[in-house]
Design a protein that fits this description.
The complex is a heterodimer of chains A (263) and B (334).
Chain A lengths: L3 H15 L2 H27 L9 H18 L5 H9 L2 H5 L5 H30 L7 H27 L1 H4 L3 H14 L11 H9 L7 H7 L8 H33 L2
Helix pairs in contact in A: 1-6, 2-3, 2-6, 3-6, 7-11, 7-12
Chain B lengths: L4 E13 L4 H10 L3 E14 L4 E5 L6 H9 L6 E6 L8 H7 E5 L11 H11 L4 H14 L15 H13 L5 E5 L7 H18 L2 E5 L3 H7 L2 E6 L2 E7 H8 L2 E8 L11 E7 L2 E7 L5 H11 L2 E7 L3 H11 L9
Parallel strand pairs in B: 3-7, 3-8, 5-6, 6-7
Antiparallel strand pairs in B: 1-2, 1-4, 8-9, 10-12, 10-13, 11-12
Helix pairs in contact in B: 6-7
Classes of the chains: A mainly alpha (263), B alpha/beta (334).
């Protein structure tokens, strides 16, 4: 496969995102406010002595801040393009081009997240003025990046599946909103999953959402020990395999529907 | 040379769930699905030689777009065969895509948020157009379509005329062998239409590109096409030259007289008065039954005239008649 078109798609998506300058600046602004708020909330909660086992306050604040920075990248839904193209019927013109359409969606989403990834840098600098973040050792950080990358891909495919439902229903907003709420809570983005008690805690860890935020974050703050890395990464890869396969099948079925029923 | 486009008994049937009226009907639809079949294209057989420019004409819902979609490979035929430049489009969608260019008047293939020229660059990458050919084509198109002033404007800010010119350039950058134009001049003003027609003529004549033009604007067809294919209710009802259909259907002419003094009923033999408005009288006559010079002589003998003219039927009035009455090999004259 020639990669040039897909580099171009990513570059154009990057440029397109950059044209919405106001959005970029408000995003940095709101992130700083959220970092400050989270620090206040967790400090207050820890003062009430609700600290869970083995997660001291500075680790908790590190966790919350890194989670926010990750959300800058993960909350960009690069696949919403699918939904828009279906509603406007422009998917037909993409199918008339010599390209792989799912790969086009991926590179477009990648370009969009590229811009937001750049935003992380100024955000880290500002965040450091407000809070202190623990920095792990190099091997742990490398493991965090690997786990985050897998989480990123998994997140892409989960979004792809959500948006591909639009092939049958044309409207997926309600489903997405619900999934969003559930995943915000159950992915460990807001509250570390170690806070969930007993059986409930075990269920939450078994869900795919945990593989997106929780695993890289718990590696970062050292709750997941090096001897358990393999196990957690394996789970992440299993979910990735499952959702990428599901995406592939959904795309095949959807493309078939377009070519048989005319979209 | 073998035909570049060939279809044989091409048929496309759409299946949609049959809906029953009322609440009980809706409930029944939920549990038992009955399907309704609608034949959009029925046994369409056509052949196009390389370099032809053919007008593909028919009323709304006649099956034009469905045919075009099958030719581009994004719709799979229900039955029949289809071949475009030696390929079966829906089996080799990507290879077929390299051979064709498509312009839809109603939807754009340009990238909404980007300056026009960046869409062109993206297309260069998509079709891997060699750099020098890309530059040459782009320069040519910018001149022909006068795109210089808005080349760096985001597409969403372009006027319809500017956007259409952009879309035409976008469809031709990779030198496609075949181009499908679906309602390309819809909603355009006279100047923009003329620029587009000139461009289509250039693409067809100077580059030998085969073009199928779908349109409701028969002036486009009259100006550009020698051959037309008429489709109605999914079936081809005429395939031949514009001249032939005019010859066949244009048996009637209109004689227009301006009388010096208005006359309540200025009869002429072998004619039928279409209208009579304060001395401006329109007569319809069959040119096989009466010669125009005879009519004019008769008119000058009976009435005092200020002006005389004879009008030929245009393609539009002929096609309108065919839509209403249906096409017959030897039309009965009314």
């Amino acid at each position: 496969m020639r990669l040039e078109p897909y580099f171009e798609f990513a570059k154009k998506a990057f440029a397109r995102e950059a044209t919405y300058r106001l959005e970029v600046f408000t995003e940095i602004g709101s992130l700083i406010v959220r970092v400050y708020l989270l620090r206040s909330v967790w400090t207050a909660l820890y003062a009430q002595n609700i600290a869970p086992m083995n997660l001291p306050l500075h680790s908790m604040i590190t966790y919350a801040t890194v989670a926010l920075l990750m959300s800058l990248i993960l909350e960009v839904d690069g696949t919403r393009l699918i939904r828009e193209k279906l509603r406007e019927g422009t998917i037909a013109t993409d199918l008339m081009k010599p390209i792989s359409v799912p790969f086009y969606f991926f590179s477009d989403g990648f370009g969009q997240t590229g811009l937001h990834a750049l935003l992380v840098i100024p955000c880290i600098l500002f965040a450091l003025l407000l809070v202190h973040i623990d920095v792990p050792s190099a091997p742990v950080f490398a493991m965090f990046l690997l786990s985050f990358a897998v989480g990123y891909l998994l997140n892409f495919f989960v979004n792809f599946v959500m948006n591909a439902i639009a092939f049958w229903t044309l409207e997926t907003f309600a489903i997405q909103l619900i999934v969003r709420w559930v995943s915000d809570l159950l992915s460990g983005q807001i509250i570390p999953l170690t806070f969930f008690p007993g059986v409930f805690g075990r269920i939450v860890f078994a869900l795919p959402f945990a593989a997106i935020y929780s695993t890289p974050l718990l590696i970062y703050v050292g709750v997941i020990h090096p001897q358990d890395y393999g196990r957690y990464l394996l789970v992440q890869f299993l979910w990735l395999g499952l959702f990428s396969t599901l995406s592939l099948f959904m795309w095949r079925a959807a493309a078939r529907r377009v070519v048989i029923q005319g979209g | 040379m073998p035909p570049i486009i060939r279809t044989h008994d091409l048929r496309k049937t759409f299946r949609s769930p049959k809906r029953r009226p009322g609440v009980s009907g809706a409930l029944r639809t939920l549990f038992s699905r009955a399907y309704e079949e609608k034949v959009a294209v029925r046994d369409v057989t056509m052949e196009l030689e390389p370099g032809e420019l053919v007008g593909y004409i028919g009323p709304n819902g006649a099956g034009k777009s469905t045919t075009i979609k099958m030719l581009t490979g994004i719709l799979v035929p229900t039955s029949g065969t289809i071949e475009v430049a030696g390929l079966v489009p829906h089996e080799r969608r990507n290879d077929n895509a390299r051979n064709i260019g498509v312009v839809f008047g109603q939807r754009s293939q340009l990238y909404w948020d980007l300056p026009l020229v960046e869409s062109f660059e993206l297309l260069r990458a998509i079709y891997s157009i060699p750099k020098d050919r890309y530059r040459e084509n782009l320069q040519r198109f910018i001149e022909m379509l006068e795109m210089e002033p808005f080349l760096r404007t985001p597409v969403r800010q372009l006027s319809l005329g500017q956007r259409m010119r952009g879309d035409f350039a976008a469809a031709m950058l990779h030198n496609p062998r075949i181009v499908y134009l679906d309602e390309p001049t819809i909603g355009l003003d006279v100047v923009a239409k003329e620029a587009i027609r000139e461009f289509v003529r250039h693409i067809n004549q100077d580059r030998g590109t085969t073009i199928i033009l779908t349109t409701h604007d028969l002036a486009d067809v009259e100006r550009l096409c020698r051959r037309i294919i008429l489709i109605d209710k999914g079936t081809i009802i005429y395939d031949g030259t514009v001249d032939h259909i005019k010859e066949q259907y244009g048996t009637h002419r209109t004689l227009v007289l301006t009388l010096t003094e208005p006359h309540p009923n200025p009869v002429l033999e072998e004619t039928e008065i279409e209208s009579n408005d304060r001395g401006l009288v329109r007569y319809r006559f069959d040119r096989r039954r009466v010669r125009p010079d005879q009519l004019i002589r008769e008119a000058t003998e009976r009435y005092e005239l200020r002006d005389v003219s004879i009008e030929e039927p245009d393609l539009e009035s002929i096609i309108r008649r065919i839509y209403v009455e249906g096409y017959e090999q030897e039309p009965v004259n009314s």
